[in-house]
Amino acid sequence: MAFIETGDGTRLYVKDWGSGRPVVLIHGWPLDADMWEYQQPALTEAGFRTVAYDRRGFGRSDQPWTGYDYDTFADDLKAVLDRLDLQDVALVGFSMGGGEIARYMARHGGARVAKAVLVSAVPPYLLKTADNPDGVDRSVFDGMIAGLKTDRPHFLANFAKTFFGVGVFSSPSSSELIAWTGNLAMLASPKATVACVRAFGETDFRADLAHIKVPTLVIHGDADQTVPVDISGRAAAAAIPGARFIAYEDAPHAVPFTHAERLTADLIDFLRA
């Protein structure tokens, strides 16, 4: 099954590999399911059934004009779980994919889910507001959108440097790998790419996190300049009952690439526990 259909008729591209307890991998912005280049094969080889899908508007999925909000994303995730009839699922969400997990657990009562993992994830709430004074100023997201609308390839190429933690004289990943992720990003529709900046930047997940009542692992790089760890990873772990937090020292946002082996090992340990 290459595609599943959501409630509004949008087709989502799905990679469904292996057998065993299911693990659903939810990608980050502005990539697609192929970002799990290192984790999905390894988890499948470790004896899990792995499912990774392209979010609407990204990769090989349909590109509708509407539906780029977290209620719809959570409903899309439910469609994947229901259509494949997955039970006792472990959800793994990277970056904006962590928002799908939080909203799904609240909106759909955590149905079918046994474990959750947030990796460099955006919850609880990125936007700076009167009751969230440590958040990111709205002008940052406005600037991202302006850059995307002016010259999307150029903006994404510069964004990748922060995403991967590229320095003046060093990079934790090869130039070829970084270029490949840029190619993945350009498969997305411009509408989805822009709309999702508003979605992950301005959605408040604080109330959603209380609904995560399954064993949860939170992993975040402590040098993440894209989604700062103090307002995201550490805050999310504190808000989720019983969650375990692991900080990757000196790691940037892109830990599925820069710390691929460590992340895979931590995932397998948590999933098998």
Relevant terms:
10 helices, globular, alpha/beta, 8-stranded mixed β-sheet, 273 residues
Can you walk through the features of this model?
This protein has 273 residues and is of the alpha/beta class. It contains ten helices and eight strands. The chain has helices spanning 39-45, 70-83, 97-107, 138-164, 175-186, 190-202, 206-209, 233-239, 255-258, 260-272; strands at 3-5, 11-17, 22-26, 49-53, 89-94, 113-119, 216-221, 244-248. It has an eight-stranded mixed β-sheet with strand order 1-2-4-3-5-6-7-8, sandwiched between helices. Helix 3 links the parallel strand 5 (89-94) and strand 6 (113-119). Helix 2 (70-83) packs across helix 3 (97-107). The protein is globular. The two termini are 30 Å apart. The model has no long low-confidence stretch (mean pLDDT 97).
Order of helices and strands: EEEHEHEHEHHHHEHEHH
The helicity comes to: 40-55%
Strand coverage percent: 15-25%
**Mean pLDDT value:** 97
Total number of helical segments? 10
Specify the overall morphology. globular
Largest sheet: 8 strands, mixed
> Which blocks of ≥5 consecutive residues have pLDDT under 50?
none
Order the strands across the largest sheet as they lie in space.
Answer: 1-2-4-3-5-6-7-8
Radius of gyration over all CA atoms, rounded: 17 Å
> Which class do the helix and strand fractions yield?
alpha/beta
End-to-end gap: 30 Å
Number of strands: 8
